[in-house]
Amino acid sequence: MRHATPLLTFDSELLLRRTLESIPGLLVWGTLVGLTVLAFTQPLLVAVFLIFYDFYWLVRALHVATNLIASYRTLRRMRGTDWIARLQLLDDPRRALEVVDARIRDVERQVAETSGSERQRSGKTLRQELLFRNDLLRLRRPDDQWPTDVPRWTDILHVVILPTYKEPLLLLTQSLDALAAAIYPKERLWVIVALEERAGEHAAVVQRALEARYKNTFGRFLTTVHPDGIPGERQVKSANASYAARVVQQLLDAGGIPYEQVLISNFDADTVPSPEYFGVLTYTYLVTADRLRCSYQPLPLYHNNIWEAPAFTRVISTNSTFWILIQFARSERMVTYSSHAMPFRALVDAGFWDPTVVSEDSRIFWQAYVHYQGAYRTVPMDATVSMDVTCAPTLVQTFINQYKQKRRWAWGIENFPFIAKAFLQRSAIPVRERFLRAGAMLEAWHSWATAALILAFLGWIPVLFGNVEFQRTVLAFNLPRVTRTLLTIGMVGLILNATLSLLLLPPAPPGTPRRRYLWMVFQWVLTPIITSVLGALPAVDAQTRLLLGTYLGFWVTPKVRVEPMRVRAPLLTTAVSRR
User: How far, in Å, CA of 252 to CA of 179, rounded?
Assistant: First the structure.
């Protein structure tokens, strides 16, 4: 007897994936629609909620401001550090501690005997030495023995991957010139420019120009061409980066170089690292006890073309910098963002960058986190990398490009289904840790999409459209005043942002009028509008697409330069030789 073949098959994996993908979007739309409906039908309830919500964000803003100041002070404190000298001391941690203790005693004496600016300089040096001592002490084991598995700094090999599609040759050479200007031995630096076959003749021209210019600059310089149409891949940056990294793996294997001695930095095409980047990265790696289970995050600055960019894109980009700076103060929940570094061993163990995702910068962290069953983290670095602010020939096109870029960043919510599914299956990760990690991601993306809209618009609905009974209440009369007072207090955060943005700002190009500095301050009054239109709306867009299964592809932000880039790192205009 033959059994009938079912017309429909049940795909449990697909059902689970689509269920998890729907959660962020349902929460966002449930919040926005639900609160809007309640604002008309239950204005008193919504009014009470809004007062508590405004107060919550006021407290949160003050807490964020505290973390922001603390992280900035730490970053500033480390300016001027001789990282190569520190690395040389690290070859013998026991001897290094003795040297540092002696230097601390000398500096303490200088602080006691001097005054004024000289005392301030000595105080800064003292704080640097104390931090160095703390790093050394963290290496010492509980049995008062020093570890024997710390590699020598000269054994560390740095690999930099610069994936590119159709970026201008000028942009690439400026990024590569900054690498060549790094304060680090160039023989320990491999640079790989990862081109795309689908870029056609542009890729061929770039390849010939770069190989001729940089072939003798670094320990190894090569270009790779990622084939188009590889099965199982999408046209995303991660596919190109993974292809280049696998080429590097073959070279390492052929040379017998241990993965544990290799650090790989995945940069954007416009990334310009500070001269001390590799020294800081090597130092941070060596003084971190669980170094092979960590990614390393520099502070991203969007300074390459900041003086030429419109005000609203400057605010968006600077806020992104501040968000990472805030994470530096609570690194236990930090996830990699944009340009960052990680051990090559961890990259291989995690299966390289997923060639199907858009947000490869954060996904690779979650891949490693899941692979190592929660024993993986992100360590902040006292170094910066600079990138481009979104800019286009016209203001309208700049606005469109900025919206698309923010939507692509907000597409990082695609990581939620990945980690949620993994957390359902990985019993080795403590339940509390899984719950906190998944909850923190949902809360962050939900707030991104809803907070600005609630604070800016929802509070007016009960006042303008509430029923007659509500209009006669004292709460209806005082709601706008209470909200305005709380938000006015919260404006302290904008003052802080304006101040820090000026402190981080690179020097203005020659001939720049001084009034431009005033506009760099006053641009922050645009924040409430910008966070709604170019902050919340792209996030709502991204989570709605995930909810509907309309997946976002990788959109390469066009790089437009009004003038040649001005950065702190020296720009080399001729071919440079290995140093």
Answer: 21
In this model, does residue 328 exceed pLDDT 90?
A: no
- What is the band of 7 on the pLDDT scale with cuts at 50, 70, 90? low
DSSP state of 389: P
Q: How many CB atoms lie within 10 A of CB 503?
A: 9
pLDDT exceeding 90 applies to what percent of the chain? 53
For residue 487, what pLDDT band results from cuts at 50, 70 and 90?
Answer: low
Short-list 568, 557, 508, 510, CA closest to 272: 568
Residue 220 amino acid letter: R
157-163 and 294-301 as β-strands: parallel, antiparallel, unpaired? unpaired
- Range of the structural domain that residue 371 is part of: 12-91+152-579
Q: Is the pLDDT of residue 124 over 70?
A: yes
On whether the CB atoms of residues 270 and 306 are closer than 8 A, the answer is no
The total domain count for the chain is: 1
Return d(Cα 419, Cα 376) in angstroms, integer.
14
Cα separation, 239 vs 353, whole angstroms: 7
Q: What's the CATH code of the domain at 564?
A: 3.90.550.10
Report the relative pairing of strands 157-163 and 272-273 from DSSP bridges. unpaired
- CA distance linking residue 125 with residue 107, whole number of Å: 7
Give yes or no for residue 61 having a pLDDT over 60: yes
CA distance 285 to 291: 6
Taking alpha carbons only, the member of 50, 33, 52 closest to residue 480 is: 50
* In-domain check, residue 133: no
H or E element, residue 5: none
Q: What distance lies between CA 445 and its chain's CA centroid?
A: 15
CA angle 395, 400, 403 (to 5 degrees): 125
- Residue 324 near residue 296, CB atoms below 8 Å: no
193-223: pLDDT as tens digits: 999 999 999 999 999 999 999 999 999 999 9
Provide the edge-to-edge strand list for the sheet that holds 262-266.
Answer: 220-226, 189-196, 157-163, 262-266, 340-343, 294-301, 377-386, 272-273
Rounded average pLDDT over 351-373: 95
Among candidates 373, 556, 469, 454, which has minimal Cα distance to 52? 454
> Does a structural domain hold residue 141?
no
Residues 169, 209: Cα–Cα separation, whole Å: 8
Report CA Rg, the chain: 26
* Distance between CA atoms of residues 487 and 6, nearest Å: 60
Could you tell me how far CA 411 lies from the centroid of its own chain?
14
39 pLDDT above the threshold of 90: no
pLDDT in the model for residue 142: 79
Q: Is residue 105 part of a domain?
A: no
Global confidence as pTM: 0.89
Residue 186 contacts residue 579 (beta carbons within 8 Å):
yes
Can you tell me the distance from the alpha carbon of 22 to that of 14, in angstroms, rounded to the nearest whole number? 12
Banded pLDDT at 574 (limits 50, 70, 90): very low
Residue 341 lies in a domain: yes
